[in-house]
Amino acid sequence: MKITVFCIGFLKEPYWKQAIDEYAKRLQNYVKLELVEIPDMPCKEKASEKEMEEVKNKEGEKVLAKLKPNEYLIALDLKGKQYDSVAFAHHIEEKLVQHGASIAFVIGGSLGLSRDLLARANESVCFGLGTFPHQLARVMLLEQLYRSFRILHNEPYHK
After folding, report:
1. Count of Cβ atoms closer than 10 Å to residue 10 Cβ
2. Which residue of 55, 60, 95, 108 has the fewest C-beta atoms within 10 A of its own C-beta?
3. Whole-model pTM above 0.85?
4. Nearest by Cα to 8 from 106, 104, 80
């Protein structure tokens, strides 16, 4: 089983890296995990809507170029479906079984995801209606994946 997580932007702060490293280490007992960082494009502070769309499009193109044509892609997006932890675990299990034991997630940068990338996604998932920094979204995704595998293996996980 393999899960690939495409992330727009790089982690700079050591506390985010430590959290990611910890969950990646925990997940290695259940799944092969690949984290792919895509450089975010510079965007001026008072950019127009058109300029922001251009930045998202360039970032999206970089992700799309790395995706395999048949890869099942789940976008993290505010308009996505929300799951509780148990339902998410069973959903991930179903997708891993249905799609050759390999799925991918994509987390946008500070501007979000391009329309083309959202259109390519097989589905979208939302971890809450609040706005979270993309660095925290990475941690949240890995934590939920770890929790999912613990649930699927009937192993205890602190609530």
Report:
1. 12
2. 95
3. yes
4. 106
